[in-house]
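Hi there,

I know you've been waiting on this one. I reran it after we fixed the sequence typo, so this is the corrected version. Both the input and the resulting structure follow.
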Amino acid sequence: GNHTDHNHGRVIAASVDCDVIAVAAKEPDSLVRIKSDGYKEDTVDLQNLDPESYPRFRSCALVAGMCAAFRNDGRQAGGLTAYTVSNVLKGSG
């Protein structure tokens, strides 16, 4: 979308024909496991949501930060396993 928050209010809107398709299943533990086709699996332990304790430039730090924000907002986050397939070019979003 038009993310003016990190584009300093400047956005060029355009449509693209790229997709990210995901399937997910709830898990009974405190782990969030995300496997994207062609990439290593990322795992986040919901007992440790400090993004700094996860490798930089990996999705696990982003997921940890998002789950921490949910908890700070009084919401719950539980374990899950997800698999994604995408034709979005690497590094473009």
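Quick highlight: The longest helix spans residues 59-72.

Best,
R. S.
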